[in-house]
Design goal:
Blueprint: E1 19-24, H1 29-40, E2 45-52, H2 56-66, E3 70-73, H3 76-85, E4 92-95, H4 96-104, E5 111-114, H5 122-130, E6 134-137, H6 140-157, E7 160-163, H7 166-175, E8 183-190, H8 208-211, H9 221-229, H10 231-244, E9 251-255, E10 261-267, E11 272-276, H11 282-290, H12 304-307, H13 321-332, H14 336-352, H15 360-372, H16 381-398
Parallel strand pairs: 1-2, 1-5, 2-3, 3-4, 5-6, 6-7, 8-9
Antiparallel strand pairs: 8-10, 10-11
Helix pairs in contact: 2-3, 4-5, 5-6, 6-10, 6-14, 9-14, 10-13, 13-14, 13-15, 14-15, 14-16, 15-16
Amino acid sequence: MQPVQETSETASSPVAAPRRLAVLGATGSIGTQTLDIVRLFPDRLSVQVLTARRNAARLLQQALEFRPACVVIDDPEGYRQLREALAGTGIEVLQGEEGRCACVQRPDVDVVVAALVGFAGLRPVLAALEAGKQVALANKETLVAGGALVREALRRHGGTLIPVDSEHSAIFQCLVGEEPASVETLILTASGGPFRTRPLETFDHITPDEALCHPNWSMGAKVTVDSATMMNKGLEVIEAHWLFELPAERIQVLVHPQSIIHSMVTFVDGSTKAQLGVPDMRLPIQYALSYPERWEAPHERIDWVQLGRLDFEAPDPERFPCLSLAYEALRRGGTAPAVLNAANEQAVQLFLQEQIRFTDIARLVEAALEHLSEPEPVPSYEHLQEADRRARHYVQELAGVAAH
């Protein structure tokens, strides 16, 4: 049940040397909050690798502050700028996916924080696990698309995996000290996003700006839209399946608008454990970096008197069809979750570019899932990559947008 496969090193008591980090997606929301935790614990954490897709200016600022051994960027012009700006500093500058995969396997990296967005996160996570690293996973899509491959890498190479998503971190914390056989049901909580009470007949007119106004959490654009469609919760159901090795029928979703209970576990004796905290991603990030310890920190505490109440409701399948699509993809298996993920990524991008309507996201994902899923039990990375490519192309074609 526990996603962490402890080696003698990860199970030992605290070591004197700082834990050395590779932060993938360092300029994004999770990456920047990870660096906030490093600033809180400079004697316990150090940064060896920082990576970004395009934001060379922010990556340069981070590199000059944290002085990693290596930085990686995808953008060719950003690569040129970083090479010039970091010349003489001793910081190595690499480019692209090959650079990321090389850096996560460095012997001076202990923990890889996987905070890339989308399918792009899968290959470096596999590379890190193949090198026996501890991975703090903040990338849902890695397990959604390639859960079987990740599990196989864990089995063969002895790496470790600790979830960073607030929901899966909550479940992980609830399971500490529990026997796998004692677990009955996992309950993932969802805020319901910005449109939980909006009239359904107005959904065709939802704008990107409205979808990006989450009531509780500060996140990147893609995951914020996923929260508005509740696809994020569907992806988390698939992720929970691979992390905790439970079937879909034992993983439930419950709408909890306050986002104080981050998830729950019900046990076979009828008792339920819940992990609670203010909506702040720095809490699960810190836990993933400190586990099995808890480090004292000045994060905000819950004011129970001011909070007053906690509300719950079942998710509305008519309002949130993406959640049902995710359960269907998990039921189908094979390449279906990869198709679901890629089609959703492409559809969200088109919505943010105002090329499709909000309600088209679920329609396009459903069409891709129906026409492109293949039942292969354990697809190879190359097969998943091809399924990803085909799903994106299919969504672009259906949306009437020329494929790139």
